[in-house]
Amino acid sequence: MVDIAGIIMKNPVMVASGTFGFGKEYAEYFDLNKLGAIITKSITMKPREGNPAPRIVETPAGMLNSIGLQNEGIDYFIKNHLPFLAKYETPLIVNIAGESPEECVELATILSRESSVKGIEVNISCPNVKKGGMAFGIDAMLTEEIISSVKKATKLPVIAKLSPNVTDISSIAKAAVNAGAGAISLVNTFLAMAIDLETGKSRLGSLTGGLSGPAIKPIAIRMVYEVSRAVKVPVIGIGGIMTGEDAVEFMLAGATAVQVGTANFVNVDAPLRVIKGIEEYVSRHPRTLNLS
Ligand code: RRO
């Protein structure tokens, strides 16, 4: 059992926002009840069309994305995605993104009325939007403002998802915890770029995007290490986790749980492989990692 701000999970493996849609496609391949928790793609108040194509580019040991927060809005989510997700016993955490503290408050208020929602992950770290997103998460004062507004609007556990695009991740994490975050997810993607040698232009329609995958793992682990020593709430490690061993590395650095992201695009059952890999590690090293 793993307790993240009162969200009780049967194992420490969650699926990262934006890499698992709303679960339906993956449910055709495995039982979603096997997951520690499900985190949805970020939701905004109004539908968003997202950024111009191309939106995804493969890079050495990673990928760039610039989806631009495409989603159908909260009303559509509640009507069309929530009933499906509510059928599972796996805790459901909804990731919210707003252009303003007010939008985040509105989203949290609406989601708090839904009994199937067990937690809110606040995305203050999207690198691909002009307003909100990373602009909040790279500023400790704005981080504190957003998280405390959301916290006042809901009794649900609030998780702050942080951006790695900062010089001092611990100070941002401390601001989020001071504001009432019950856990910290880190990291979102690294602002990055790739150039097409034939055209001489960016390979992404929006020029820059967020780098994820194994390329970022060591930096993410360093950040988890720093933050887990700076705050007293659980840290959820994210960044290039492909195997159980990767997940264990994050846990040994200080993470209480992990999220599998980019790996979901490589293997449809990536989170199950990670769960199995952690179990195998624990049976080989019962004293190194104690998850009971
Ligand atoms: O939609 C996106 O482009 C996106 C989001 Br909201 C995010 O939080 N992180 C990311 O890499 N892409």
Q: Provide the gyration radius in Å.
A: 18 Å
The CATH topology turns out to be: TIM Barrel
Largest sheet: 8 strands, parallel, barrel
Structural class: alpha/beta
Question: Any idea what the shape is?
Answer: globular
Question: End-to-end span in angstroms?
Answer: 6 Å
CATH architecture annotation name: Alpha-Beta Barrel
Strand order of the largest sheet: 3-4-7-8-9-10-13-14
The CATH top-level class label = Alpha Beta
Structural commentary:
It is a single chain. The protein has a single domain (2-50, 62-191, 211-284), classed as Alpha-Beta Barrel (TIM Barrel). The mean pLDDT is 97. The longest helix has 15 residues, at 270-284. The strands form 3 sheets. An 8-stranded parallel beta barrel has the order 3-4-7-8-9-10-13-14, surrounded by 6 helices. It has a 4-stranded antiparallel β-sheet with strand order 5-6-12-11, with no helix packed on it. Strands 1-2 form a two-stranded antiparallel ribbon. The chain is 33% helix and 19% strand. The chain has helices at residues 24-27, 74-85, 101-112, 134-137, 140-153, 169-178, 217-230, 244-253, 270-284, and strands at residues 2-4, 7-9, 13-15, 37-39, 56-59, 62-65, 92-96, 117-123, 158-161, 183-186, 190-192, 209-212, 235-238, 257-260. It has 292 residues and is of the alpha/beta class. It is globular and about 50 Å long. It has 9 helices and 14 strands. Bound molecules: ligand RRO. Residues 18, 42, 65-69, 97, 123, 125-128, 188-189, 210 line the site of ligand RRO.
List the helices and strands and how they pair.
Blueprint: E1 2-4, E2 7-9, E3 13-15, H1 24-27, E4 37-39, E5 56-59, E6 62-65, H2 74-85, E7 92-96, H3 101-112, E8 117-123, H4 134-137, H5 140-153, E9 158-161, H6 169-178, E10 183-186, E11 190-192, E12 209-212, H7 217-230, E13 235-238, H8 244-253, E14 257-260, H9 270-284
Parallel strand pairs: 3-4, 3-14, 4-7, 7-8, 8-9, 9-10, 10-13, 13-14
Antiparallel strand pairs: 1-2, 5-6, 6-12, 11-12
Helix pairs in contact: 3-5, 5-6, 6-7, 7-8, 8-9
Ligand RRO binds next to loops.
